[in-house]
Amino acid sequence: MVPRSQVAEWITEAKQAGDADIVIFGSRRTWNGLLADGLVDELHLMVSPTVVGDGVRPFGALVGLDLVECRRYENSPNVQLHYRVAPAAVLTMLGTV
Fold first, then answer.
1. CA distance 31 to 34
2. pLDDT at 91
3. 30: nearest Cα among 61, 5, 55
4. pLDDT on residue 88
5. What's the whole-model pTM score?
6. Packing angle of the helix pair 28-36, 4-16 (nearest 10 deg)
7. CA atoms within 13 Å, Cβ hemisphere of 63
8. What's the DSSP call for residue 26?
9. Residue 73 to residue 55: CA distance in whole angstroms
10. Chain CA centroid to CA 61, Å
């Protein structure tokens, strides 16, 4: 386990070392920081059809995403969306995360 404050440095080192795929389970704070640092190649988002209040923006910036796959699960309302992050993906900051 890597603390959030050290994850960008750890990923940078792992990528430079040529390590295999790196999987990060994290909150929107974590992935927004990694997106802003250009350290995300792909996103796998699990979407559940539940709306809570006004909702929370998942991204702190406009992000260029290319849909690779959409997967449904039998007997489940959830879907998994698999995106490839487009080059120069963080387009415009919307505010603080």
1. 5
2. 55
3. 5
4. 61
5. 0.66
6. 40
7. 23
8. -
9. 24
10. 12
Q: Tell me the pLDDT tens digit for each residue of 25-41.
A: 777 788 888 888 888 88
Sequence-ordered alpha helix ranges (H) in the chain: 4-16, 28-36
Residue 61 tokens read as: 């910036």
DSSP annotation string for 16-82: HTT-S-------HHHHHHHHHTT--SEEEEEE-S---TT---S-SEEEEEEEEEEEE-TT-S-EEEE
Flag whether pLDDT at 90 surpasses 70: no
Place of tokens 């920081």: 33
Q: State whether the Cα torsion 61-79-71-22 is positive or negative.
A: positive
- The continuous run of DSSP H or E covering 84 comes out as strand 79-93
